[in-house]
Amino acid sequence: MRRPFWITLVLITAAYLLFWFLLIGATADFGTWDAWTLTVMKPEIRYAVGLSLFTCTAAAGFALLVAVPVGYLMARREFRGKTWVDAALDIPIVLPPMVVGICLLIFFQTSLGKAVETVLPFTYTIAGVVLAQFVVAAAFAIRTMRGTFDHLSPRPEQVALTLGATDLQSFRHVALPAARRGMLAAFCISWARSLGEFGPILVFAGATRMKTEVLPTTVWLELSVGNLDSAVAVSLAMIIIAVLVLVLVRSMGERV
Known about the structure:
80% of the residues lie in helices and 0% in strands. The chain is mostly helical. It folds into 2 domains: 1-30; 33-251, Orthogonal Bundle (MetI-like fold), CATH 1.10.3720.
């Protein structure tokens, strides 16, 4: 009697996966090898690839630095207003990407934002690209690290405290080593999310060729001038990278 139910679920899952395979397959079939070669040879494309690798790595690194302590706090401590803090941490995930970019742009027009930019300019700079990627990627890293610490037993940390370790020592020498796979997963997820970020970068950092151009903005720029073959080639490259990152995360056994 239960078999029709599970068959229905399998069919729904298969239909959804088929839909995505058809989309990706159609995109892959559109381009040609010559288009790929010409796209790779363009200096602006090579610049966008290099800048994307740099900014994604930087954004993911900063996101991890924030995610580890925040995730540990949210997993290990109960405090008044925790539900509201938890909701606030997810704001970048639910906000429309363009809104994130507008918020960044407006902030750096305030007196505090202008004071920050006298030390390190962000608006329409490479630093702005990293910041725009970080704002969104950090939320995903925090969620991943909280899940990691939630699944780790606090018992070893409590034992370390009873043996005379401080909270910092327990965190550094017990919790962090146990969470290393989760940290790697959080970094990979943040990196992949940064790679696909478009809206905040376009609004806050711009899409200036050979300056703030990264792969998502490259797709937009190529489409805007009618170079559909180049846009498709770059899109496929991003799809391949995203799939490789997801496979890496899943191979580590982290369900995020």
